[in-house]
Amino acid sequence: SGRAVTAHHTVLVSNIIGVERNEYTVPTAPAEDAPRALQSMWETWQEMHEPGTRRSLREWLHDSQMDLHDIHIGYSSGIFSLQERAWAEQLYLSMCHEVQKQLDPQNRAHRPIIDELQERMADKMYVNFSLFQSMPDAWGIDQLFPVLPLEGLDQVPERRAVLLDITCDSDGAIDHYIDGDGIATTMPMPEYDPENPPMLGFFMVGAYQEILGNMHNLFGDTEAVDVFVFPDGSVEVELSDEGDTVADMLQYVQLDPKTLLTQFRDQVKKTDLDAELQQQFLEEFEAGLYGYTYLEDE
Predict the structure, then answer these.
(1) What is the residue extent of each domain of the chain?
(2) Contact status, residue 57 vs residue 111, Cβ threshold 8 Å
(3) What is the pLDDT of residue 298?
(4) What are the pLDDT digits (tens) for 232-281?
(5) Are 124 and 192 in contact (CB under 8 A)?
(6) How far apart are CA 172 and CA 74, in angstroms?
(7) What are the residue boundaries of the Arginine decarboxylase helical bundle domain, all occurrences included (predicted)?
(8) Which residues sit opposite 235 in a β-bridge?
């Protein structure tokens, strides 16, 4: 097919700009006069650590979910305080982590629980791209694309993650990933280092993605490079497209960048800011106006 022939020639490379993790600490025991739902969750937690217990992992998880559900409803009704809700959520995350440690991926009966907990405990990683611009098929028709970290490949992928783009739309997330065991709702990732976040590669995006991409949130075409590999093994990288600027995208919606800059300059002059600060504001505004639509390093 045409897709099979052309898909392989293009790879989208982007950087992770932030991560949201399910951080938790095991809370202390509730007070003796604490509401019954809190006591019940704590009893389940204690039972999980008793040797020789006969209850299944699924039962522990189910009981804790039911108690947490009751606490959420009670919080909405004013029965539970914010502190009690936070305590319950911390304990629930601790339970999920404890259950995860006892699951066996080779046990078919454990697979549904593993998938459920991987999705629930997954990190949310924000990637510097627009799903609607660069991978519209993933959003529109649930097309699957191989996604891999391009760095940290010598590390054990101990984390699971869900990838989100930088648009304002909740649909701007990749829901399914190609995994070693088939299709998963999260992807394996190495430990995240905020000082050295890994680059990600989105593969097989060479068929139709650039043509179909739309300007949701006015994110434009990405920068593009052509990579040439010669018979002697040498490699040459050539910038073929600098990508769209903010000014380019504004013109698509009938906004004139020069007019905007003039109006902004007039507004700044009306302020009581000193001349140096006014000039700083103007330079930053102009740099943003004629800069890349995606986040750039300063």
Answers:
(1) 1-211, 246-289
(2) no
(3) 65
(4) 999 999 888 888 889 988 988 888 999 999 999 999 988 888 888 999 99
(5) no
(6) 32
(7) 32-118
(8) 229
pLDDT over 80 (residue 213): no
pLDDT tens, residue by residue, 115-155 = 888 888 888 999 998 888 888 787 778 888 889 999 888 88
Nearest residue to 93 (alpha-carbon basis) of 35, 186, 21: 21
Contact 92, 132 (CB under 8 A): no
Amino acid, single-letter form, for residue 26: V
Residue 66: pLDDT above 80?
yes
Rounded to an integer, what distance in angstroms lies between the CA atom of residue 27 and that of residue 87? 6
Beta carbons within 8 Å of 172's beta carbon, 6+ residues apart: 130, 131, 132, 139, 164, 165, 166, 216
Q: Which fold has domain 1-211?
A: Methane Monooxygenase Hydroxylase; Chain G, domain 1 (1.20.58)
Q: Report the distance separating Cα 51 and Cα 54, nearest Å.
A: 9
C-beta contacts of 102-110 below 8 A and 24+ residues apart:
102/57, 103/57, 105/181, 110/57
For range 24-42, the mean pLDDT: 88
Residue 284, exposed/middle/buried by CB under 10 A (0-12, 13-18, 19+)?
exposed
| Confidence (pTM) | 0.79
- Burial of residue 258 (CB within 10 Å: 0-12, 13-18, 19+) is exposed
Q: Which DSSP string corresponds to 89-145?
A: HHHHHHHHHHHHHH--TT-GGGHHHHHHHHHHH-EEEEESS-HHHH-HHHHHS----
**Residues 37 and 70 sit within 8 Å (Cβ to Cβ):** yes
d(CA 115, CA 130): 26
Please check whether residue 161 is in contact with residue 125, taking contact to mean a CB–CB distance below 8 angstroms. yes
145-198 pLDDT, tens per residue? Answer: 889 999 888 888 888 899 998 888 777 888 888 887 788 888 888 888 888 888
